[in-house]
Amino acid sequence: MVWSVIAVAFWAMLPAYVPNNAAVLAGGGAPIDGGRMMGDSRLLGDGKTWRGTAVGTVIGFSLAMVLNAINDPASAAIGVQFPTFPLLTALGLAFGAMLGDITASFIKRRSGRERGAAFPGLDQLDFVIGALALAFLTSPMWFLETFTLEVLLVVAIMTPALHVTTNIVAYAIGVKNEPW
């Protein structure tokens, strides 16, 4: 039972977990805020680009479609029924993850933090909140069937651990400037 809940949580969140990593790898391009300021700090900063947002969204959406293609009803034989992703929900998870990260950047700039500065809690869960919110808005019934209380609890516990691990790896291989 516990492994089944973990598997469903990971499967359902993969389209939201991948976009920000893809955006980092695609990096560069025109910043979303166009260099605009709010007060004495940038609106978002150079790290939030149109290209990164587009690539991250497309990769997350594409991953959801791949997961749908490999989701075999026989998976129930191993005790796990993985959810399939309605098209709009797949887009909602991927784009919502990007919007959550963009929103966190806005909040970080307003709190006086520079690009790359740590903001514990927000850094680990910003994209999850955005992804879950858009998934709910695009497909409330799918969301409620998929994200049970147990699955949401696993997501809340699993995500920070995965986030920290992937950031440390990205830092170690030189694609991130900070290990957080």
What does this structure look like?
The protein is mostly helical and 180 residues long. It has one domain (2-172). The protein is built from 6 helices and 2 strands; from the N terminus they run αββααααα. A two-stranded antiparallel ribbon has the order 1-2. The longest helix has 25 residues, at 2-26. The chain is globular and about 55 Å long.
Query: Into which percentage range does the β-strand content fall?
Result: under 5%
Please provide the count of β strands. 2
Main sheet: strands, sense, barrel: 2 strands, antiparallel
Mind telling me the C-alpha Rg? 17 Å
Kindly name the structural category.
mainly alpha
> Please, how many domains?
1
Helix content: 55-70%
Give the end-to-end Cα distance, rounded to a whole number of Å.
32 Å
With strands numbered from the N-terminus, the spatial order across the biggest sheet is 1-2
SS field, number of helical segments: 6
Instruction: Name the helix and strand elements from N-terminus to C-terminus, one letter apiece.
Output: HEEHHHHH
Q: What is the averaged pLDDT score?
A: 90
What general outline do the C-alpha atoms trace?
globular
Could you name the ranges where pLDDT drops below 50 across 5 or more consecutive residues? none
Concise summary:
The chain has 180 residues and is an all-alpha fold.
Give the key terms.
180 residues; mainly alpha; two-stranded antiparallel sheet; 6 helices; 66% helix; 2% strand; globular
Please render the helix and strand layout as text.
Blueprint: H1 2-26, E1 37-38, E2 41-42, H2 50-70, H3 87-110, H4 122-138, H5 140-146, H6 149-172
Antiparallel strand pairs: 1-2
Helix pairs in contact: 1-2, 1-3, 1-6, 2-3, 3-4, 4-5
